[in-house]
Amino acid sequence: MGNIVIVGTQWGDEGKGKIVDLLSEHADSVVRFQGGNNAGHTMVVAGEKFVSHLVPSGILQGKTCYIANGVVVDPSVLLEEIDYLTGKGVDIGPHNLRISEKAHVIFPYHKALDNAREISDGKKKIGTTGRGIGPCYEDKASRRGIRFVELLDPEEFTDRLSLNIREKNHMLTSFFGADALTEESIHKEYTDYARRLAPYIANVPVELEERMDKGESILFEGAQGTHLDIDHGTYPFVTSSNTVSGNACAGSGVGPGRITDVLGIVKAYTTRVGAGPFPTELLDDTGKFIQEKGAEFGATTGRTRRCGWLDMVIINNAARLNGLTGLVITKLDVLGSLPELKICTGYTLDGKQIRYVPTSLKELERCVPIYEILPGWEEDISGILDYDALPETAKQYLQRIEALAGVPVSIISVGPGREETIILHTVC
Q1: Full strand arrangement of the beta sheet holding 326-330
Q2: What is the pLDDT of residue 299?
Q3: How confident is the model at residue 159 (pLDDT cuts 50, 70, 90)?
Q4: pLDDT of residue 1
Q5: Residue 88 counted as an annotated binding residue
Q6: CA-CA distance, 304 to 302, in Å (whole number)?
C-alpha cells in the first residue's frame, strides 16, 4: 500500500470514517490533516459503534495516529475522546497518538465568538457547529493563534493568552453584548491540559518523513467534504479549512510527491447539513425515506441531514479538484426498495445547460437538475459481499456513476459494518 489520501466528494458525511478504518488495516500510520471537532466519524466494528471527532479512525486498528498541523484542537474534547476510547478497551496513548506541536489550540473565547456571531446573524447565520473552529482559524491567519508549542511554554502562553483575552472580551462585550471571559480560569484550565497532553506532542512532519523513508505507508484522513472547502466549496456555507486532497500535504508537512493515490468517498445519494444551496434536495416522501433509512443525523451535532439524489456535477467537480484515482461508493444499501433512481448529470441555469458548479450562490440556487432515470431494486443488499451477486440494476447504477465520473469504482459499502464491503480494485 502506498500513501493514500481519503477525501469526501460532497458536503461531508459520506462515510469516510468506515473506509479509513477499513484501509487502516493495511497502513502503518493514519494522519488527520485538517478541520477540528466539528467533524465526526462513525465506525461499526463487530456490531459496536465508535464515534471519533479528532482521533483518526485508524486507532481502532492499533495504528499510530497523527493529529497534524492543519487541525485545530480543542484539548478538552481530545482528552474526553481519549478517555472514551480507553473506556471502550481501545489502546491509546503517547505511543500511538501523536499531536503536532504546530497545531493550533481552540480556546473558550473561540467558541464564545462562534456562538455570538450565529446569534447576531439571525436568519442569515451560516449554521456553524459552534465549536470555535472558524475563530481559531481566524487567529491562525492573523497570527494571534496559540499552538501547542506555545501552550507548553508557560511564559509564552501567559503573554499570548493575556493579549487574546483582552481583544476577544472587547469584541464579545462591546460588539456582541455577550459576557466577558475570565483569564485566570482559562489559564489554569489550559495549563492542566498542557500537562496532560505534553507526552503526545511531537514534530509530526519529521516523524512522518522517517516512516516513509523506511517504506511505511500512510493514510491521510480528511474531514468534511470537498464542497465545504474554504476556497472551492459553496462559500460562505463552508467550513474554515481546505478539505481537498492538496491540503493533505500542507496540513501535515508532507511533500506532494509522496502521495500515491487519492480516493474520493461518494455517498450513493447526496446529503447536506445546515444552510446553503442544494440543487438535488428532495423535500418529499422519497427524501424522508432516504433520511430515515440512512439514519441521516450528524455524528457530531445530531442535526438532521437534508437528502437528495446523487449529483454528478458535484462529484465531477470533486474529481477534478482532488485528482481522484478511485471512487468509494457508500450507503448503496439505503437505496434498496425505491422503484426508480435519479442521477443529476447537469443543470439548467436560466435556460442554458451547464455541467459545472457556479461560483455565485445566487446562480447555483437557480440551477435546475437535469436527471437521468435508472431502475431501482427491491432486494436488501446489505449482506452481499460479492459484486456479481448484486442486483443487475444496482450494478447498472454503479457503472453509470463510474462512466459519468471517469474514475473507477474501487470499493462499495453496503452497510455500516467493516465487513459489509465489496472490494473491486485493491488499493492496498
Answers
A1: 201-202, 97-100, 64-67, 29-32, 218-221, 4-8, 261-267, 326-330, 409-413, 421-423
A2: 60
A3: very high
A4: 81
A5: no
A6: 6
104-197: which CATH architecture? Orthogonal Bundle (1.10)
Answer whether residue 30 shows pLDDT above 70: yes
How far is residue 164 CA from its own chain's centroid?
29
Residue ranges of the domains in the chain? 4-11+26-100+208-261, 104-197, 265-423
- CA 228 from centre of chain: 9
Q: Is 299 annotated as a binding residue?
A: yes
Annotated ligand binding at 223? The verdict is no
Provide the β-strand partners of residue 302.
Answer: none
Lowest mean pLDDT among 48-52, 208-212, 413-417: 48-52
Residue 39 known to bind ligand: yes
Point out the residues that are catalytic.
13, 41, 140
Per cent of the chain over pLDDT 70 is 95
The residue that leads in pLDDT, 322 or 129, is 322
The CATH code that applies to domain 4-11+26-100+208-261 is 3.40.440.10
Averaged over 125-132, what is the pLDDT? 75
Q: Is 268 part of any known ligand binding site?
A: no
When the pLDDT of each residue in the chain is averaged and rounded to a whole number, the result is 94
Establish whether 333 is an annotated binding residue: yes
Q: What is the CATH number of domain 265-423?
A: 3.90.170.10
Identity at 333, one-letter amino acid code: D
Q: What is the pLDDT of residue 20?
A: 87
Q: What is the pLDDT of residues 45-99, one digit of tens each?
A: 767 788 888 999 889 889 999 999 999 999 999 999 999 999 999 999 999 999 9
